[in-house]
Amino acid sequence: MLKIKITAKFIISFLVVALIPLAIATYISYNSSRKALQEEVSNSLLAVADNKANQLETYLNEQEKNASTLAHMSDTLSAIERYNEAFYSSEGMDGAEYEEVDSEFRSFFSYYQKSSGYDDLYLVSPKGNILFSVKKREDLRSLYEVALYEASGLADVFIKSKESLRIEISDFEYSTKINKPIVYISAPIFKRAEFIGAVVLEMTNEGIARLVKDYTGLGETGEVIVASDIDNKAVVITPLRFDEHAEFIRKVPLGSKVDLDIQRAVKGEEGIGAIVDSRGKEVLSVWRYLPLFRLGLVVKMDTQEILASADRLRNTLLKISLGLLLLVIILAVLIAHSISSPIKELTKVSSSISSGNLSARADIKANDEIGDLAKTFNEMTNKLVEAKASLEEQKGLLEKANKELDSFVYTASHDLRAPLRAISSFAAFLEEDYQDKLDDGGRDHIREIKEGAARMNRLIEDLLALSRITRIKNPFEDVNMNTLVTEVIKQIEFDIKRSNVEVKVLEYLPTIHCDRIKISAAFLNLINNAVKFSSKNNKERPRVEIGYQDEKDAYKFFVKDNGIGIAPKYHKQIFGIFKRLHSAEEYDGTGAGLSIVKRVVDDHNGKLWIESDEGKGAAFFFTIPKTLKQSKKIGEILVKEGAVSEEDLEKALEKQHGDMQPPKYKGETKDHVG
Amino acid sequence: MLDELRDKEKDSTLLKILLVEDNEADIKITQRAFAKSDVKNNLYIARDGEEALQFIRHEGKFKDKARFPRPGLILLDIKMPKKDGFQVLKELKSDPQYNFIPVIMLTSSKNEEDIVKSYRSGAASFIQKPISYDSFLKVVNNFNYYWHIINRLPNPDIVNDKEE
User: What is the pLDDT of residue A635?
Assistant: First the structure.
């Protein structure tokens, strides 16, 4: 499984808890501010555009009105009549008559032209001849001629107003004479409803440009464009904020993909929207149409600028987020460290303790739950040390007791026997030396003394055997039970034959991992008992059966006989030392046998029990756990006692070999007991 | 075989055995068993380890070499006051003058440790005293038969003369 460190967990959870809401808040505020800004800018753009459109319209209306007023002035009327007469006289424009008329009216028109800011002012005869021009345009005698050969705004607008009898305004055109865009306003002149000519004002774009030039409320990138549809192109007719020489140079072919706002404006549409201009930049644009002069007006601003403050807000928020992120990570690391470092310390200390260094203590002074944990841990370790000390003490006591027992065994085997031998021998001497003086009763007594001594000797022997079986640990080995049982039977062959007992091994017995000498003693005692107690069966031939059952974790061995059996109420006590149910006369033996069997089975972590009833024979069962588990158990005890390391135990168990045996007691006998 | 046995009995140089034993009863039992044995020996008694060494070295009350001849075989008990069997055995075996004399341990115990220690220290044999007199008698008979008839022992006096 993937092991995620506490620090990582803390960082992740802090990030989740802190950053997700932060990100959401940032997104929402950025979006709403962006929206609000867009709306605000749209509104202000609309206002600017409408204002501009109004100003332009007012200005342009004024120009039309000027033309109209001029056309209705009596001076104009008489002037055109007089110029007409003089122009069509025999001498024409060069004659004295024309000169007289001209001197009379020129100052008036010249003054008007100058004061009203027009580039030029013409009087045109109904036939289309230019009768008068402030700037003396003598080259243009007949507008009809001009109209035939070149596209002249002046000719066009005159012809139109002559036909419609109304004020007509031409498209803008670029004048190569003054290098400026110009427009003509032609106003028909009537005398008693008769068309007697027209006054034409030639106007530059300067007035419009002046109005356009005011970029108030349009920020850094705001632009105002006035364009006219000329020859299927939207032609810019005023200088631009960022391009002074755009007049009649910036042209947008109608139907192209950029500057849709300009295209729409010159086509007479009105609207607002985000579009891409010829620079390839996105702009927010408002377009309007000025019908009188057929001009398109566009007021626009770069989206980038509009959203700049929103972007600034976003950047600020991002910076705050980043700062918070850093703060969160630092906090997470600090908190995780404050939690994990004591845990690491505890882990270190506990592994140090488990590797045997009981003096190790956790040095954590935190005044919180972790501090409490460390305190408890240290207390636990103290208890462990105490427990170990008391265990050592008890071990020492046990060793001492064992030594005392050894010395007792030694004394018993030596000192107790000497007087016993004396009793037995001197009874024999008595019998020998006083043969003649003893009657049968005396000889009986002597025999009883000798037998008593022999019995006493057997008791001592059994006691020693039992003591030895308890203390001695022999190496475990793989032992073929078949061979072992056969050998045991051979040992008591004499008794078996004498009692005419049929001893049968029911099946081929398994090989088990055990203490060979002890298991041998157990079988010897069980078979011996079985032979003994079945021998007096009068109904059928005494029979002893030995067999086993393979159970899941253990082998279950049994020794059955068809002897006298044991009533269930005695089943518990028969395994106690020197417990006898029968007199020594009936069945000889000291009663140590089953105690020995019990000890042996206990030593192998097995179980021993009897199934029997009076007169129905007896069956003794005992289990021996299977090799691996058993040596594992012993190994675990050894590990607990610190005799071997856990790794060594595992290695040994892998080999499944009996190397991990408890140490053999030095100098102890390995010979047969029982 | 019997002829040989009779010859030996006639011989004034019967095998001289030193019994080292502190227990009076055991001394009496052993003496009686040896007396009853089919093969006769001269049995001398030492009642503890120190006495045994004095006897062998002709020291103290055992100065009279004629009365207390050097034994050809020693029967040695283990548990004894003053000096125990092992100490006696060690001193004898470390002394080139006496280390050729076979020492047979005769004791009540059959403690494995004692057996190993005895042989390590140079004992020639280890015998456990049986409880019943009949059995003991059998043991003594067998003992004598082996050590006196079957086995060949050096003559202690000759060895010493030559060495000295």
Answer: 54
Residue of A nearest to B113 (CA): A667
Residue A18, token pair as written in the block: 């802190």
**CB atoms near residue A496 (< 10 Å):** 20
The b-or-e profile of A11-43 (16+ CB within 10 A means b, else e) is: beebeeebeeebeeebeeebeebbeebbeebbe
DSSP state of A181: E
- B22: closest chain A residue by CA: A418
**What angle, rounded to 10 degrees, do the helices at A516-534 and A481-491 form?**
50
Minimum-distance CB partner of B26 among A413, A418, A671: A418
**Taking a C-beta distance cutoff of 8 angstroms, is the pair A620, A545 a contact?**
no
Find residues 381-410 of chain A whose CB sits inside 8 Å of chain B. 410
pLDDT tens-digit profile of A646-658? 666 555 555 544 4
CB contact under 8 A, B112 and A420: no
Opening angle at CA A645, ends A640 and A648, nearest 5: 130
Distances (CA, A) of A315 to A26, A35, A283, A374, B136: 10, 16, 22, 47, 115
Note whether A361 contacts B: Cβ–Cβ < 8 A.
no
Cα distances from B76 to residues A46, A171, B79, B104, in angstroms, run 137, 156, 9, 6
Chain B contact set for A669 (CB, 8 A):
111-112
Sort out which chain A residues have CB atoms less than 8 A from B116's CB and list them.
667
Q: What is the pLDDT of residues A619-638, one digit of tens each?
A: 899 998 886 544 555 555 55
- Which of A418, A450, A671 has the CB atom closest to B23's CB atom? A418
- Residue A87, burial from CB neighbour count under 10 angstroms (0-12, 13-18, 19+): buried
Distance from CA of B83 to the nearest CA of A (A): 17
Residue pLDDT, tens place only, B72-87: 899 999 888 888 899 9
Nearest-Cα residue of chain A relative to residue B131: A421
Instruction: Choose the mutation target among B32, B84, B105, B132 for the interface with A, i.e. most A CBs under 10 Å.
Output: B132
Distance CA B26, CA B29 (A): 5
- Predicted model pTM: 0.47
Tokens of A323: 């700062």
Q: A471: phi > 0 → left, psi -120 to 50 → alpha, else beta; which?
A: alpha
Q: Rounded to whole angstroms, how far apart are CA atoms A124 and A83?
A: 9
Note whether B141 and B38 are within 8 A (CB).
yes
Contact flag B133-A428 (C-beta cutoff 8 Å): yes
